[in-house]
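Researcher: Please translate sequence to structure tokens.
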Amino acid sequence: MANEIKTIGVLTSGGDAPGMNAATRAIVRKAIHKGLKVKGIKRGYAGLLNEEIFDMNEKSVSDTISRGGTILQTARCKEFTTPEGQKKGAEICKKHGIDGVIVIGGDGSFQGAQKLAGLGINTIGVPGTIDLDIACTDYTIGFDTAVNTAMEAIDKVRDTSTSHVRCSIIEVMGRRAGYIALWCGIANGAEDILLPERYDGDEAKLIEHIKETHAKGKQHHIIINAEGIGDSQGMAKRIEAATGIETRATILGHMQRGGSPTCKDRMYASVMGAMAVDLLLQGKSNRVVAHKNGEFVDFDIDEALAMKKDIDEYQYQVAQDLV
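Model: Translation complete:
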């Protein structure tokens, strides 16, 4: 039987994502509305192990819904991947009277939540990652803002690329997942999209395509390259040498993590945060909030982590057909 919840802790873990503050705000205000105490945990699991724990109230999250990043800060923590670190984390939760923990982050963060649950701390995960790579959910906090940030930047690069009749390689984030690259490829009208899930490394074929579009009078050639493939600078040099066409690489980098969250990220994050509190009050633990087929639902974390996710084949085909 799950423990009765009187005090909850909230932390953000892994890479930051726009909308994490909206989720934190919803958690704090929903919990207080339900008569619970809330403790913020700074810098993710690293902050938990260092006992960077403080009381939160309505004022703690005032005027934060429009802010990017995370007011709780975040960090990677190797120690928490060990059984000793996990046991220490559970003991610290008990020491501070924390009955349940809500973890906002990605799959790695959920693995930590899973371990806490196994040590008697009720845990709920909220999906926060710009990569959209959590298999159990159709939406992750931060993706909408990040993909719009990238799209706007790519539009600007295309303007200058057209002026100089250049080939431009624009690298977007996504180490193992190509969702930002795919969406921007379609939304920006890119000539080529290189995804970790699909790219076969055939650079000769890519170069031939650039030559073909240039011969047809195309004034620019935009290649969206996912971070997981990388080597954009080297690729640009090789393409220029092979085609004679001026080629430049632009790496958008961490700008995609920042900025004020979009309406969708604020709204979905708020609903997910509030739902996480309700799940704890229902006595649930080791669950992750998700948005699936148009509804907000929850999954067992073990089940969620076992799921696999791949690029939608039809969307990928559309991207090829619209070149």
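Researcher: Any highlights?
Model: The chain has a mean pLDDT of 96.
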